[in-house]
Amino acid sequence: MKILLATYWYLPHVGGVSTYVYTLKRELEKMGHEVDIFAHHPDMQKYYMPNNGRYIDKPKIKDPIYEKMMTYYEQYLPQVDPWIRWRDIERYSFEAAAAVFGLKKYDLIHTQDLVSTRALWRVKSNDTPLIATIHGCLATEFIYSREIKSKNSLPWHYVSAEEYYGSTSSNITMVPTHWLKNLLSTDFNVPGSHLTVVPYGMDINAFFKKMNAKTAVNVPPDKKILVCPARLVPVKGHKHLLNALAKLKEERDDWLCWLIGDGRLRRKLEKQTISLNLQDHVIFMGNRQDVPALLKQADIFVLPSLQDNHPFSVMEAQVAGKAVVVSDAGGIPEMVTHKITGLISPAGESELLFQNLKRVIENDSLRCQLGENAQQWGMLQWSLDTMMERILTIYEKVTPNLRKGGIRGGRKKQTN
After folding, report:
1. Per-domain residue ranges for the chain?
2. In CATH, which of 1.10.1090.10, 1.10.10.200, 3.40.50.2000, 3.30.70.20 is domain 2-201+383-405?
3. Spatial separation of the C-alpha atoms in residues 273 and 280, rounded to whole Å
4. 3 near 36, Cβ under 8 Å?
5. Helix (H) or strand (E) holding 38
6. Where is the Glycosyl transferase family domain (predicted)?
């Protein structure tokens, strides 16, 4: 079977969607399927297929669309916000680029976000099934980031429509958590019957190899290491973590916190770190290629998200056997059981986050037990085989004419 994996986002990138796409591609190819990827190039100036090198310069597609769309907006819809115009033009451009690359040769299209789902649904053949995986809720993220300041605004109504049409322009839409399914159904009127929950899986063997690789980072012998791998953006809640760490420093100073990742809040968070006198305890490490090896050296994993769906970082921390301290944002409580596989505090509550961090630092027995429980849970729950079985079942539902050809191929189960 010839399958297209498509996303509006650029690939590769540091984050869960990139991991998901490349893992899915590898596993499908093991079964004998031909798999292409269609995405933005990391420079955002090309649409391309990273697996075969095909590309087209984005301005060739976007410039004429921009000219026509802006003329239309100025003539008929001058009141429309420039931000909305930009999003509309981006989707039309991605749609046109997909048509240029050609979609007829694919037996199945699997999109990875709202934009690519709606775009490819409009230009593909009616005979080609399209499965979507929606990895999060952009509309509510825009509220947290203050890109949208009011739910009474036109931008909010626009992104709400994006959530609806991006989630329904498919034969079946997969989401990783019940939280996201309920949010899309309740807040954006997506029929629950159209959504199927398929939690993520991970290549555990490959992760262990990376975890045991060497890293140049050394750990002081007298320090407990807290690690927070997350983009430095508002929705990840770093400011609340820093406030919690300031309280922790008042009680003990035998710890370091590694902030792994980068983003537009870095300077602001660095200033907050200095104002809280945490510069000797909090280390901004930027984007790293050795995160699993750094995780191995850590004692505690912390994620203070204000909104999150099914973070890969939590999965990896559990498989690594780390004590997990998280917020109750989004789908995280579906991944962590309080006081059994980790400690959970309400999102945005620095005081309760501080208390949980203090507990796992000062109680060696609790920290070890949480880590052991998390690893047992993670090794079973995040099996790549389980995720692939669920995805293949959905593929089979929409490709009945191809079932006899053996969608599952000669798949070999992962051994841990």
Report:
1. 2-201+383-405, 204-381
2. 3.40.50.2000
3. 9
4. yes
5. strand 34-40
6. 216-377
CB of 188 closer than 8 Å to CB of 163: yes
- Summarised one tens digit per residue, pLDDT across range 186-229 is 999 999 999 999 999 999 999 999 999 999 998 998 999 999 99
Give 215's contacts (C-beta < 8 A, 6+ positions apart): 290, 293, 294, 297
Angle at 49 between CA 17 and CA 3, to 5 degrees: 75
Give mean pLDDT, residues 263-278.
98
Beta strands in 356-412 (DSSP E): none
Is 246:273 a contact under the CB 8 Å cutoff? Answer: no
Mean pLDDT, residues 106-131 = 98
What secondary structure does DSSP assign to 266-283, as a single string? HHHHHHHHHHTT-TTTEE
Quote the distance between the C-alpha of residue 17 and its chain's center.
5
DSSP conformation class of 11: S
Over residues 388-401, the pLDDT tens digits come to 999 999 999 999 76
Same CATH topology for 2-201+383-405 and 204-381? Answer: yes
Burial 387-412 (b: 16+ CB within 10 A, else e): bbebbbebbeebbeeeeeeebeeebe
Helix axes of 312-319 and 16-30: crossing angle, nearest 10 degrees: 70
204-381 topology per CATH: Rossmann fold (3.40.50)
**Edge-to-edge strands of the sheet including 108-111?**
55-57, 46-48, 34-40, 2-10, 108-111, 130-133, 172-175, 195-197
Q: Is the separation of the CB atoms in 320 and 312 below 8 Å?
A: no
The closest of 40, 70, 34 to 56, measured between CA atoms, is 40
Residue 416 has pLDDT above 90, yes or no: no
CA distance 26 to 368: 34
Predicted TM-score of the model (pTM): 0.93
Give mean pLDDT, residues 335-355. 98
CA dihedral 349, 352, 310, 117 (to 10 degrees): -10
